[in-house]
Amino acid sequence: MTMIFGVPLPALLGQLLIGLINGSFYALLSLGLAVIFGLLRVINFAHGAQYMLGAFVAYLLLQHTGLGFWPALVVAPLAVAAVSAVIERTMLSRLYDLDHLYGLLFTFGLALILEGTFRYYYGAAGQPYATPPLLAGGTNLGFMFLPNYRGFVVVASLAVCLGTWLLIEKTKLGAYLRAATEKPQLVQAFGVNVPLLLTLTYALGAGLAALAGVLAAPIYQVSPLMGSNLIIIVFAVVVIGGMGSILGAIVSGYLLGILEGLTKVYYPEASNIVVFVIMAIVLLARPAGLFGKEA
Fold first, then answer.
1. Measuring CA to CA, which residue among 32, 58, 261, 22 is closest to residue 161?
2. Selection from 48, 37, 39, 84 nearest residue 209 by Cα
3. CA 225 to chain centre
4. What's the confidence (pLDDT) of residue 214?
5. CA 23: distance to chain centroid?
6. How many CB atoms lie within 10 A of CB 67?
7. The domain that contains 41 carries what CATH number?
8. Per-residue confidence (pLDDT) for residue 215, from 0 to 100
């Protein structure tokens, strides 16, 4: 059997796959956080709850309407984005002119309300969500066995991350969004509805979190705690990549997921803290993050 630094190749590849899958969720979630912070300057602590909400909307659609995974992959993110847009317009927008701490406290409180509500009705135990039949089973690659659904998650995450980056960085709408956060009066003078742009930005970030939740539902159980268990790691990923950096969030998410997987192979005891160790090192060497701009 082929050994890589004392570890059997199949075991190493299996952990790399797990790391890549985790990295896919880190990238999607940190991307949503980076979009919201980069364009709205809001530290969205409700992001984990929106991720959980996406998974629960998919679960409830299946239980009460029979709507399967593929329709839920579209409906759930749109539903969470719509609810988040209402919250942004009626409550969060009132905090933009205040210190960032107020936005953080508001979204933290919102996360506690959502998590507490779902814990009250569904308890802390997870609810199963079946893998879509089209992606059941796996594919033998010769050197490893790849579960079809997990391969789909990696590809879908890459596609969404790339599409979002292109939208923000390479389109006219993205240029308006960036300009609206820096010179809102100037943009409004050209007839652009700046409040609507800001609402759409927050809805986009929340929708990305909900999409990650739907993708996660067949892999992890649907639980009220699924967001709170992940959000601290995702914040660390965003800090490492650079607060507000779209590219930094994507690259750091995948790389840290893979590094976490490798750590589980060679030094399992450190796998739960490796992301935070790297965050501390990056903050000491480059406080703005790997892809962030120095103030």
1. 32
2. 48
3. 15
4. 96
5. 10
6. 16
7. 1.10.3470
8. 95
